[in-house]
Design a protein that fits this description.
Blueprint lengths: L1 H24 L4 E9 L5 E8 L12 E6 L5 E9 L2 E9 L5 E8 L5 E6 L5 E5 L3 E5 L5 E6 H6 L9 E8 L5 E7 L7 E6 L5 E7 L1 H4 L2 E6 L5 E9 L4 E10 L5 E7 L6 E11 L5 E9 L10 E8 L5 E7 L25 H9 L7 E9 L5 E9 L1
Parallel strand pairs: 17-19
Antiparallel strand pairs: 1-2, 1-24, 3-4, 4-5, 5-6, 7-8, 8-9, 9-10, 11-12, 12-13, 13-14, 15-16, 16-17, 17-18, 19-20, 20-21, 21-22, 23-24
């Protein structure tokens, strides 16, 4: 009797697992990658649709792409996805008109893309939030994988990387500067490193958490000091998540700090998107503000704000931006924020993109927006057919 009960239990378990898998696999029929080119007035010039063949149909496993414009005025796209064979990284290269030139897939890789750069040698480096850097040549063939954790900690990170990157920004030269969390050092867990374009650690410095608490991004200023972007919370009406811009010397001693944030509701979240040292002296800041309680609901008002500080941290200008054309070019080179800027594209333009070359009535998700070297823009997204 016990044997029969066990057989029935196993049979029921198989049915449950099969049904669950079927529900996941039937969540949508297929997906497509969509690239749209806009001119400087945000009007659509062309749309390219690329079929995502062999992708898992579970939405949680669908691709989340990032892209850059390349030196030949085409586009390089990278994204991680899963299918029945496991995890993959997928690369796409197009020409300047969006025509697909080649596609590469490398099995056994997964991550969350923080930044993509085209190196001076024409190849590509894909930086992931878990500290891994994928290097590809000009044709998309894998050259090597570097792990920032291994370089900083001098021991292999193993299955669980010891470095998590918060942000990557370009220096005034060809190098990069990163800020990350070093889980191998409990006393000085924040690390700032200068990296080469392929992810090699050139210099590193660790900081105590109290000096870097809440830091989400930074730039190195022309005087060799740091400008940090942090967040803090205020429980006062009109408060919520606020921004603190902080100038420090090379030893992380604070020179000045300046709070930023607007709020048109009882409580707001103010999210820093980018920092920049102005050629006219002073510092430019782009951030967004939205009602704190409604961020997860979607379709809620988001204010995009441009602020300017003088060399001493005094606020000398602050204004709302209402379209993509009002954004400064440097903001598009900040890591992993381009999806936040899509709300500035007019609804009529978005509707035109959604309808163009679509088969039926798909659901759309836009992942990335960048400024192109002709003064226009390019938008990258995915379509889901249920």
């Amino acid at each position: 009797m016990k044997k029969i009960v066990n057989i029935i239990a196993i049979f029921c378990l198989c049915i449950t697992v099969t049904s669950f898998a079927g529900c996941i696999e039937s969540s949508f029929k297929k997906t497509e990658t969509v690239i749209t080119k806009l001119d400087s007035t945000e009007k659509v010039q062309w749309t390219t649709v690329i079929d995502n063949k062999d992708y898992s149909t579970a939405q949680s496993l669908s691709p989340s792409n990032r892209f850059i414009q390349t030196s030949d005025k085409g586009f390089f796209i990278a994204g991680f996805f899963s299918n029945s064979y496991g995890d993959n990284i997928r690369l796409l290269k197009t020409d300047s008109s969006g025509t697909l030139l080649w596609e590469r897939r490398i099995a056994g890789q997964t991550g969350e893309i923080l930044a993509i750069i085209q190196r001076n040698d024409g190849g590509y480096s894909v930086f992931c939030r878990h500290g891994r850097v994928y290097n590809f040549d000009t044709s998309g063939s894998m050259e090597r994988i570097l792990d920032i954790s291994d370089q900083i900690n001098q021991t292999p990170g193993g299955e669980h990387p010891l470095i998590t990157l918060r942000s990557i920004t370009r220096t005034s030269g060809s190098d990069l500067i990163m800020i990350g969390d070093n889980y191998a050092n409990i006393w000085q867990p924040v690390v700032i490193s200068r990296l080469s374009q392929n992810g090699t650690v050139l210099t590193e410095k660790t900081y105590a958490r109290e000096n870097m608490d809440g830091t989400t991004s930074l730039i190195q200023t022309h005087d060799g000091e740091l400008l940090l972007g942090k967040f803090f919370y205020s429980d006062q009406p009109g408060g919520g998540k606020q921004i603190l811009i902080e100038k420090t010397d090379a030893n992380s001693s604070i020179i000045w700090d300046s709070p930023l944030g607007i709020c048109n509701f009882v409580f707001c979240n103010n999210d820093l998107l980018g920092l920049h040292e102005s050629a006219n002296q002073g510092y430019d800041i782009i951030y967004q503000s939205h009602e704190q309680s409604n961020r997860s609901k979607g379709n809620m008002p988001v204010d995009t704000v441009y602020a300017r500080l003088d060399n001493n941290g005094h606020l000398i200008q602050q204004e709302l931006l209402t379209n993509v054309s009002g954004l400064p070019p440097w903001i598009f080179y900040q890591s992993d924020i381009s999806s936040e800027l899509i709300s500035l594209i007019p609804e009529r333009t978005m509707n035109s993109i959604i309808a163009d070359k679509s088969q039926g009535n798909p659901t759309n998700r836009f992942d990335s927006l960048l400024k192109t070297d002709d003064g226009g823009y390019a938008l990258l997204g995915s379509r889901y057919y249920f």
